[in-house]
Design goal:
It is a single chain. The chain is built from seven helices and three strands. By secondary structure, the protein is mainly alpha-helical. It has a single domain, classed as Winged helix-like DNA-binding domain superfamily/Winged helix DNA-binding domain (Arc Repressor Mutant, subunit A, Orthogonal Bundle). A three-stranded antiparallel beta sheet has the order 1-3-2. The radius of gyration is 18 Å and the shape is globular. The N and C termini lie far apart (46 Å).
Length: 183
């Protein structure tokens, strides 16, 4: 197989050490996700939420402030299929965090309308718990390393959002969509 090249002209697969590092990084990310999911699920249990549900709320809060996102828009930002996002949204609707409503101008489109229950994330006790968890999961990093990692992950997300292309609308100021509920 011929080596593919990055836009910057460097070979993607030519260096075996780089390939090994990429493979290790790829696997390690999944291990990190497992640990973070377990930890976040434990933190969210008292609110009867899963990490996936929290992430959808974060995406809606961050990327669609003051308006109801369509299922399609939310799925694009969430990084999953429309069907998967609808399944998550139905669970959130059952818990009172949002409502699935028809678009008033196009009845074929379903919109996600957040309810006042989302404000629970802004209560002082919740903000303190979120800050403590975030400090704990980044405890092995200096503040500078935390900022550098954030910048690297944002750049990375811009490249992996879709096969062959960046995440639509990704920017340095938060391509992950997770800031809305945690701030």
């Amino acid at each position: 197989m011929a080596a593919r090249t990055l836009d910057r002209g460097t070979a993607r697969t030519a260096d075996p050490d780089l390939l090994a590092a990429r493979a290790e990084l790829f696997g390690s990310i999944f291990v990190v996700v497992q640990h973070l999911t377990r930890r976040a699920d434990a933190e969210l249990a008292e609110m009867d939420l899963t990490t996936r549900q929290w992430l959808l709320l974060a995406v809606l809060t961050k990327w669609f402030p003051g308006r109801d996102a369509s299922l399609t828009e939310a799925a694009e930002r969430y990084g999953s299929s429309r069907q998967n996002v609808k399944q998550i949204a139905v669970g959130l609707e059952e818990r009172g965090f949002l409502r699935l409503v028809p678009d008033p101008s196009d009845g074929r489109t379903t919109r996600l309308r957040l309810t006042g229950k989302v404000a629970a994330f802004d209560e002082p006790a919740s903000v303190a718990r979120q800050a403590a968890m975030l400090a704990d999961v980044t405890a092995g990093l200096t503040p500078e390393e935390t900022l550098a990692l954030r910048d690297l992950v944002v750049r990375w997300l811009a490249g992996v959002g879709a096969p062959g292309g960046p995440v639509a609308g990704a920017s340095r100021a938060g391509a992950s969509g997770t800031e809305g509920v945690t701030q």
